[in-house]
Amino acid sequence: MPNASAHGGKVLFSVLLGTFTVSLNNSALNLAVAELMATFDARATQVSWVVTLFMIAMGMTMPLTGYLADRVGRKRIYLLGLWGFLAGSALGAMAPSLAIIIVARGLQGVAAGLMIPLSLSLIFSAYPSDQRGRASGIWGFAVMIAPAIGPSVGGLLLEISHWRVLFLMNMPFAVLGLACGYRYLMAEPANHRRRFDLPGFVLITIGMGAVLFSLSRVETPTDLLHAASLLPLAGGLLALAAFVRVERGAEAPLLDLGLFAHRGYRLSVALACLQAVILFGCILLIPLWMQNALGFGPLETGLVFLATAVAAACCSPIAGRLIDRYPPQWCIGAGLMVTMASLAGLATLTEATPVWMIAAWMGLRGLGLGCAYLPSTTVGIKELPEQHVAQASAMNNMARRLVSSLGIVALSLYYDMAVKAALEQGLSYGEASATALHHAFLALAAIAVLCLPLAWRLGRASRDAASTTATEPVPPPLQTASPRRPQ
Known about the structure:
mainly alpha; Growth Hormone, Chain: A; globular; cell membrane; Drug resistance transporter, EmrB/QacA subfamily
């Protein structure tokens, strides 16, 4: 087993490099919006495509990962994605115009859509089921810490250098990830008989792209009434509904929706989606409060989020070990309880609340995040057959992105309407914002309450799956030919 553990560690390190590269780049580039506007004399709506196209391209590519991994092999597709991310970084660093930067970000989004769903699949293939929680916890450390340090690194590089360096900084990690990937990731036979589900691909691509595009354009309640947002949203939802109908009758579906028949996986996706709304809801609300109501700058806001990410990153490896050794509902349930406490604390914010108190509540939220968010996904996926992990991870990611996008739109619309109503009643902007935030954070806390029974049921489903696997009869050993008498 030591050799197996050592090999698993090498696979984990190789995948961590690619994941870290994607997460670091995406969070660092968010700070370059203002400089890109000044450099290319562009409007904010034009530069916003640097972020928006990445998310849309990634969401549209994820459905393909399961098919491509089966048809070509996980190692080849993952490394192809890493090559694509490296090429996108080089193109962005040399881009002479904003249009080329946006193309580069689209290429990076496609690459990330290939890499992210395969990350857990590659890691799980190198570890037995009872060690996958620990491995995914270490992977979660990189997932959490990269977005935390990204804004700090990006801000420092923008202070001393040029926006092009934000693309160049990815390249050493990507090159090292490629070198380790070619050396340590295991190649596997390709299934050349796997047929391509063209109707399913067309429907899921149109559906994901249209929904994400329309939601990215909604900033006020009236935007929902505009044809430019309403028609893509309605068309995308219809395409997704048609996709489900087509896939249920397909012989070789692009995404195996039958995986939702596994109770543990189904519960884990529901938990991940609800927690994603909480996660991205806080990312939306806290900057609105700190910068618009309290007048703090990006540095103070970034430090507050750093408390969340550092706490979550430090807690994630511990949570991974806990779900390997103990019933997972206790770790996930404890994380949800801590999340509820932190959201209730954030609901008490006033204009007199000091920054250190906001950071303390956000750090507590990070502890809850580390104990509950990634472990929920890990528990639901780690018991699935290895050949289904890539598809399961892709569907989990897509569901989280769709639900969290809808949640962010709902929260932002509520915040705008609540602040407007409070201002009409004669309250100051700070008081109006505090009132809106109070109800918004209580709503997020209520979502965490809804997650508790799901976490308990997920733990029971995981226990039942483990007991079923343990009681399955072991097949007799294969008969081997005698060396003295050829058969």
